[in-house]
Amino acid sequence: MKYEVLPWVILFLPLVAAGIITLFTLKNEKVSATLSVGAIVIGFFATVLCFRAFRFSPQEFTINWLDLGTLQVDFGLRLDPLSLMMLLIVTGVGSLIHIYSIGYMKGDPAFSRFFACLSLFTFSMLGIVLSNNFLQMFIFWELVGVSSYLLIGFWFEKASAADAAKKAFLTNRVGDFGFMLGILILWVTLHGTLNFELIKHYVQDNPAALGGAAMLAGLLIFCGAVGKSAQFPLHVWLPDAMEGPTPVSALIHAATMVAAGVYMLCRVFFIFTPDALTVISWVGGFTALLAALIAVQQNDIKRILAYSTLSQLGYMVMGVGLAAPEAGMFHLTTHAFFKALLFLGAGSVIHAMHHEQDIWKMGALRKKMPVTYWTFMVGTLALAGVWPLSGFFSKDAILAAAHHHSLPLFILAVGVAGLTTFYMFRLVFVTFFGEAKSHDVDHAHESPGVMVWPLRVLAILSIIAGVIGIEGLFAGALKSEGEHPHGIVAQLIYPFQHAPVAACSGLAAFAIGLFAAWKLYANAKSDPLPAKLGGLSRAMANRFYFDEIYEATVIRIHDAIATISDWIDRWIVEGLCLGLVRGGTDLTGRALRLAQTGNLQTYAFLFVVGVAVVLWFVLGK
Amino acid sequence: MNVGLEHYLIVSALLFALGLLGVITRRNLIVIYMSLELMLNSANLALVSFSRFNDNLNGQVMVFFIITVAAAEVAVGLALIVALYRKRQSAHVEDLTSMKY
Questions:
Q1: Which of chain A's residues have a Cβ under 8 Å away from the Cβ of B98?
Q2: Which residue of B has its CA nearest to A592?
Q3: Min CA distance, B32 vs chain A (Å)?
Q4: Does B10 touch chain A (CB under 8 A)?
Q5: What pLDDT band is residue A565 in, cutting at 50, 70 and 90?
Q6: Long-range contacts of B96-101 (CB under 8 A, 24+ apart)
Q7: Chain A residues with CB inside 8 Å of B100's CB?
């Protein structure tokens, strides 16, 4: 079949582009941008073709990669509705962000390097999405970590960016360690099987096969998602990652990479036991609440969005934990659209304000940047979950699942929805409404077309993504039973028929949040909350002191261990062991050197003595 | 007294020991060289006497070779000693210990 080659093309084109840019075209910005953008746009169209071909007939293309006796590792690409949809998001949103970057990064001295890194990231991300076994996924998982490190630290001459990159990488490493242990447990208990399909059948045929290891393996694998999707307690890296260029924040830290954790949870959903799912749902719910609270008191436009992303990721993880992976994936999809839109909108604002990110220095940008304003508004409404924008439907799916399974989580989720509306409209009111709060606003102007058009496309997607059958697709991929509405009108009213309590609570939360934000921030010149909340507000603004706590515990312990290791290395390993060997050799050498008198006759004498000894041995016997 | 093979061999061994003693104890390179030649000739004497008492010519043929090689060796060795003397103004071994530790 002629489509067989397409997945390989989709996967490897970005890698080829990254390679060519790094090796040959670092000096030529135009060619670099064309290559990188071309690779992902072609990938997008190829994905659309694949989508049409394989939507109803999942397929795997496999080559044998490692053949080491009992260890058989395949390199395979799996195409099913789940991966196809994710492919569409990565290549589609990715394409828009690549195009936007041409405008945003214009004039940067390392323009070409940026695109090389972007392409490398795209390759790794596509690798995760297409993987058909754990080992391959883990490899690409790490590659994503590396490219994320490169992109966060893109402006590495800034100390904060370099630190943020390091922090992201190391924090991810903690989660990945658990992920690897989980994979190893599965590998041992399942006798060397790592293929998703095989494990799925195995687990379904004899549910008790994993035994006691099931819970442990599930939670360890969840650790990987905790790191990558920045769930509590490893959430601290994501806000700092905002030091990277804004398109990177949009692509990696909103739309794709952080979604990898959720995607992975859905991909291997079958191995999670009910107990593990409970843990997952609570971790997700707690992260959602924590991040939403912190977002309320942030002043940096990108950090607000970063905490919002954390909170929404918590939502998705909670959805998965509530045994509704299709709701999690649905929210992931819509979130990819509107959060990418919000980040790109924020980037447009930052670009216009000459890299000012403090919202209290903006204001009244509504008239200066109409397109950015309108698209940002669409993104905000979608995120807040306003009917009939996409966010409403996906959030409702999760709320419905929460309502069905666990009342405390449902209340928590509704509360987070209210907070989401509150902090997003705080951002909108302060940034776009009111009066100008600094002189930069006077010089602000709309961004160029190459940046504005992706905003428009994403805005349209954010509006319609809820009713074009995405949820049905995921439901078909992840669950066998369950009916889903067809047709736009049916989908529009489906939430109200299916789970009216959830839908109405969601809308009520939106109304309360909007009202509170309007009351407090519609014309505010400075933030009124710190005066009202006092210590709580300070704690929120300081991110509940997580960084400080980690500093005092984890980092302190690490430093202590490092000091001890250093001492052992310096004095025991180097001093005692190496010192003895080295000193002994040195001493022997010095002693033996004395035999070299330089006198010809000594040598001759010793020579004769040697000959005599040999003769005595040979003849004397 | 009947002179037999052992007498020749004893003389040869004495000559060899004398030569060795000279090589080890004398300080002048030229004398050392002469002692070396003495050792070579003691070997020649032993070979010739073997040849004589075994009634074949193998030993004598060997001696011719040794004499030829010794002549070549003397030419090279003396040239080296002369060159060394020109460089160092000395042909005494205790002055030539620059390879010492």
A1: 598
A2: B101
A3: 9
A4: no
A5: very high
A6: B96/A598, B96/A600, B97/A597, B97/A598, B97/A599, B98/A598, B99/A596, B99/A598, B100/A596, B100/A597, B100/A598, B100/A599, B101/A593, B101/A594, B101/A596, B101/A597, B101/A598
A7: 596-599
**Mean pLDDT for chain A overall:** 84
Contact A596 B100 (CB under 8 A): yes
Among residues B101, B99, B92, the alpha carbon closest in space to that of B25 is found at B92
Contact B98 A599 (CB under 8 A): no
Whether A390 has a pLDDT exceeding 60, the answer reads yes
Residue A213 amino acid letter: A
pLDDT at B43 over 60: yes
Assign A210 a pLDDT band (cuts: 50, 70, 90): low
Q: How many CB pairs under 8 A join A and B?
A: 31
pTM for the structure as a whole:
0.77
Which residue's entry shows tokens 């630290």?
A: A153
Q: What is the total residue count of chain A? A: 621
Q: Which residue has the higher pLDDT, B28 or A255?
A: B28
Instruction: Quote the minimal CA–CA distance from A607 to chain B in Å.
Output: 11
CA-nearest residue to B95 within chain A is A599
Find the mean pLDDT for residues A324-353. Answer: 87
Residue A64: enclosing H or E segment and its boundaries? strand A59-68
CB within 8 Å: B24 and A605: yes
pLDDT range class, residue A482, cuts 50, 70, 90:
low
Rounded-to-integer distance, Cα A92 and Cα A100, Å = 13
Residue A129 parent element (H or E): helix A111-130
Is pLDDT of A496 > 90?
A: no
A606 in B contact zone (CB under 8 Å): no
Q: Report the C-alpha dihedral over residues A399, A401, A402, A405, rounded to 10 degrees.
A: 160
> What are the structural domain ranges in chain A?
336-526, 531-580
pLDDT value at A483 more than 70:
no
Best A590, A600, A605, A615 member to test B by mutation, with max B CBs in 10 Å, is: A600
